[in-house]
Amino acid sequence: MNKFAFVIHPLDCSDVARKFNFTKYMPDALVERALKLLPPIKISSITGIQSPSARAEGFFVSCLLTARQMMSLPRPFVLNKIIQAVRLAEKMGAQVVGLGAFTKVVGDAGITIAKHVNIPVTTGNSYTVATALAGAKKAATLMGHNLKKARVTVVGATGSIGSVCALSLAKDVNNLTLVGRNEAKLHILADRILYETGLAAEVTCNVKAALRKSDLVVTVTSAMDTIIEPEDLKPGAVVCDVARPRDVSRRVVEERDDVLVIEGGIVEVPGDVNFNFNFGFPPKTAYACMAETMILALEGRLESYTLGRDLTLKQVEEMYRLGQKHGFKLAGFRSFEKPITEEEINLIKQRAIIKVS
């Protein structure tokens, strides 16, 4: 039975209080000052993962820096903290390690980290993209959109993840718009899509104009600030935000009750899995990036599967197949760290219908 580990970190100081209750009485600045000094720690063991053909177990290791610290502290300091966490996982017997949340955003998306440890490292982006696209298409259907008739837009289309999303979506839709900052690169991608799928995609550098007419948006830019605001979206629009930091402003969910913003699907893990840690998900469910690490362990593919910012459609499709082979399923949706049910989606759909009529 292969063992894996997954590196997590507190998104903010309220997450720290989940593990260390006394910190909720402390000022955030004091908590963050303490976190900078602390070594990585094991958070919990993960047991009970059972696919039709294999078993795996693992554990969570935390790099004790908040998301704000990850993005604001000197990069070498942050990378060293993440490397320490992976080395701790290695000492504990992990044979493959996944990078979670902002640990895979800092620097070169895992390449430097992998060079400084002796076990394979993966960002989980292949399965994240696979399940995000599956979730986006399912959410669009729940919102009443016919994918063959819907106007679908990929924002950040010329990036490695964006181009893979566009190539995958081009197989399922008839109206695809590619948005990016470099028009020449957009045309190159559009030519590739036409050659490989037969679909003639539109291209534009005007993100606001593209958003206003879109039914389904997949956004994957590398922008440091949000680029999608409440006024940019039409009633009934579905936005799947794959970017970290987020492309979608929190104002969208606060001010628009007639649009649906999702982060991609929640993955149901096979077996009687117990994470022994509450990270805010329903029982037996996990982030797709966590699941990729589990799938690699179950499959015996102890390799650095997804590293850096280059991603291929072949990787995404293979990881999706491996997930199906081992019994992983799309289990639900999340919006700004909170689960959103199909009943809530139906209410959003009804409000959008009323607004349009």
Automatic annotation (TrEMBL):
Source organism superkingdom: Bacteria
Quinate/shikimate 5-dehydrogenase/glutamyl-tRNA reductase domain boundaries: 143-254
InterPro entries: NAD(P)-bd_dom_sf, Shikm_DH/Glu-tRNA_Rdtase
Listed name of the protein: Shikimate/quinate 5-dehydrogenase
